[in-house]
Design goal:
Layout (H helix, E strand, L loop, with lengths): L9 E4 L3 H12 L8 E5 L11 E3 L3 E3 L6 E2 L4 H7 L12 H11 L8 E2 L15 H12 L2 H4 L16 H10 L7 H10 L13 E2 L5 H16 L2 E4 L1 E8 L17 E8 L2 E6 L5 E5 L8 E3 L14 H10 L9 H4 L2 H4 L1 E8 L3 H10 L8 E4 L6 E4 L14 E7 L18 H12 L5 H6 L1 E8 L25 E4 L13 H15 L16 H12 L1
Parallel strand pairs: 1-2, 1-12, 2-8, 6-15, 12-19
Antiparallel strand pairs: 3-4, 5-7, 9-10, 10-11, 13-18, 14-17, 14-18, 15-16, 16-17
Length: 538
């Protein structure tokens, strides 16, 4: 057996899915001994934005849920095909996910609900000829021409009133002021979803929340390989060879390498020195940084001063070299990036049964419902139960979120950002019109709310070069990871983006002769393209 000291060491900054995936690829595909791979994570729990926690007594919570998809998520499936489930080493997470979705297929029967509580015919997307022409114009323009313009710069008012936009924006969390480049990429990446956007039949889900179903199995696999994760480690700086007296790097055309990673642990400064054959993989930014929680009778704080180390580290690195990106393009406007989510922990099935009767959704189908006329633009989903590991049979959960958290509700006059958990529950029951069960539901439900100041920051308007390359020019031993790197043609705010970036980073830096699965292009499939065109012109 080869001695581990003869192999390179790899340091991964951040414990989100990008770093976890990179660690798997380092061991599985690059052949590094697990004990040579070290993950440095500021928080007490790994997984980054893929979270899930709580208890039946105190209430469960997920900040959000990433919807998966067969065609587009090829790198994620490649990763999960390697990882066994927690309960059975003979069954991969990929196989478990496939079998779960075969049994509990997503199918929304009440995707859009109007102000009167009527389920709309969402199969009618509502496009006019002008809307179609505006979409075609956006798709035809190169990203360099689109630049930092907003979505609303490319569409007339009618487009934003269509059933299509109500569904598309709430499925993917777009605001009218977000980047038109990102919308174009989403159109191209998920064109296959157009004919089924009203049912979400293309959505794939994990058996439990994605922390329990993805993060924990990946962590256990890594631990078995000897990979070490150090929690409570806040990385404050990464030093490179060739820095001048003010910490700036020279031109981007010469060789550049990381020589030291500086961090704080338990209030003490320390560092790791990198040898000539060692590697560093650095996660930039975080969409769930500085998330704060509220409860039945409290309101979550909105943090604006970047207390999480993920953003401050990137800002430090960006000052060293212009091609390390421009974090201010993404974290510079909290009010454009924030929204709030909530998780209900219910000790009575009354609300879930009423939602099933109202919507016609079968139990366990996990279908998103949006109150189209709500001033908060509230959406909810009832996941398959149980949604958390160890969740009792007589406890149930529901997740929801809203895009317009500072708009006063038409029912109560409250802003979501100023509402307690129970007040948000009142709003939800009012939107459904379930006044007759309100007392029972409120008495048997715990509400956990989460305010996230940067949750859609990756959609912020940007120039082409505001995100750094995964492997910057001249890099000999470092790569960037996460949602704020540039991967041509792919779409942010997806697990696939993080995993694909990790694959590019590991395969590229370590010169691994393995093919990275291609980005799926629906337009290259004539059948899929024809179905999408029929939906647009229906």
């Amino acid at each position: 057996m080869t001695n581990a000291t003869q192999h390179p060491r790899a340091y991964l900054v951040g414990g989100g899915i990008a770093s976890l995936a990179a660690a798997v690829f380092l061991v599985r595909d690059a052949g590094l001994p697990g004990e040579n791979v070290r993950i440095l994570e500021e928080q007490a729990q790994s997984g980054g934005s893929l979270d899930g926690s709580g208890s039946p007594e105190g209430g469960y919570v997920t900040r959000g849920g990433r919807m998966l998809e067969d065609e587009a998520y090829v790198c994620l499936w490649n990763l999960l095909d390697t990882i066994p489930t927690l309960g059975d080493d003979a069954v991969s997470v990929l196989r478990e996910t496939e079998e779960f979705n075969a049994r509990w297929a997503t199918h929304a029967n009440a995707r859009l609900i109007d102000a009167s509580g009527t389920v709309l015919d969402a199969s009618r997307l509502g496009f006019t000829t002008a809307d179609r022409l505006e979409m075609a114009r956006l798709l035809a323009l190169p990203e360099s021409v689109i630049g930092a313009r907003r979505i609303e710069d490319f569409f007339s008012e009618h487009f934003f009133t269509t059933n299509f936009w109500a569904m598309w924006r709430t499925t993917f969390a777009f605001q009218n002021w977000h980047s038109a480049i990102e919308l174009k990429r989403y159109f191209l990446r998920f064109l296959q979803e157009l004919p089924r956007i009203h049912t979400l039949a293309g959505v794939r889900r994990t058996r439990l929340n994605q922390y329990d179903s993805i993060v924990r199995p990946v962590q256990e696999w890594l631990e078995r390989q000897g990979v070490r994760t150090e929690h409570g480690v806040r990385v404050t700086d990464v030093e490179f060879t060739g820095e001048d007296g003010e910490g700036r790097l020279g031109g981007e055309h010469g060789e550049r390498r990381v020589r030291r990673i500086r961090f704080e642990r338990d209030g003490t400064e320390d560092s790791y020195e990198l040898g000539p054959q060692d590697y560093a993989f650095i996660t930039l930014g975080s969409m769930t940084a500085d998330a704060r929680y509220g409860s039945d009778d409290t309101v979550p704080e909105l943090v604006r001063d970047k207390r999480d180390g993920a953003w401050t580290l990137w800002e430090t690195l960006a000052r060293k070299a212009p091609d390390f990106g421009r974090p201010g393009a993404f974290n510079g406007n909290v009010d454009e990036a924030k929204w709030e989510s909530f998780t209900l922990t219910m000790r009575s099935p009354t609300l879930l049964k009423r939602i099933e009767e109202f919507s016609g959704n079968a139990p366990g189908t996990g279908a998103l419902m949006t109150f189209k006329d709500s001033r908060w633009l509230m959406s909810v989903v009832v996941p398959h139960q149980p949604h958390f590991d160890g969740q009792p049979d007589d406890v149930f959960t529901l997740w929801g979120y809203a895009l317009f958290v500072d708009e006063p509700s038409e029912l109560t006059g409250r802003k979501m950002s100023e509402a307690t958990g129970q007040e948000i529950l009142d709003e939800l029951l009012g939107q459904f019109g379930f006044h007759d069960i309100a007392d029972e539901v409120c008495a048997t439900t715990t509400v956990t709310t989460v305010m996230m100041p940067y949750i859609t920051s990756q959609f912020e308007r940007r120039e082409v070069h505001d995100r750094p390359q995964v492997i910057p020019r001249g890099s000999t031993n470092f790569a960037f990871l996460g949602q704020f790197t540039e991967i041509p043609e792919d779409v942010v705010f997806t697990v696939e983006y993080s995993v694909r970036g990790a694959m590019h980073a590991v395969y590229g830096l370590l010169d691994i002769d393995k093919e990275i699965p291609a980005v799926y292009h629906a337009l290259s499939d004539p059948v899929t393209a024809l179905k999408a065109l029929k939906a647009i012109f229906a």
